[in-house]
Design goal:
By secondary structure, the chain is an alpha+beta fold. Helices cover 50% and strands 12% of the residues.
């Protein structure tokens, strides 16, 4: 049994609910097994939602974790009943969480590479040195 093939089959069974923001500020909700591919299809025009034609480009504004297809369809239906303001709030909160996760990861990476002593800090070039004359006259 090929484990990677089995994992791939399981991943293809997962469905994701997503929401894109159109160029005019409107939102569209849909489901897919591959959110990135689906957003590209919306932007390329072929196989994209008809209601988004003339409103391109679209950008991913929100997406859910994987679930069964029936659960994804139920969640998509609930999203379509939200007001524009409620969808905007969802998108802003989701983006803030994504930024928090990225910043936490970057901070963790920076701690690993960050100088630990003042001597190490002294070896780093001053980024302002090239732009401003910091020599005392």
């Amino acid at each position: 049994m090929n484990i990677s093939r089995e994992i791939g089959k399981e991943l293809r069974r997962l469905w994701f609910v997503y929401m894109v923001r159109a160029s005019n500020g409107s939102y569209y909700a849909g489901i897919s097994t591959d959110v990135v591919r689906r957003v590209l299809e919306h932007n390329e025009g072929w196989r994209g939602a008809k209601c988004l034609r003339g409103k391109r480009p679209v950008e991913l504004a929100w997406w859910s974790s994987g679930m069964t297809k029936s659960a994804a369809l139920r969640l998509e239906a609930r999203l379509k009943w939200l007001t524009h303001v409620e969808k905007e709030i969802m998108a802003v909160e989701w983006e803030a969480r994504q930024l928090d996760e990225v910043n936490a990861l970057l901070n963790a990476l920076d701690r690993e590479r960050a100088p630990q002593t003042l001597e190490e800090i002294g070896d780093y070039p001053d980024p302002l040195e090239d732009r401003y004359d910091l020599s005392e006259s």
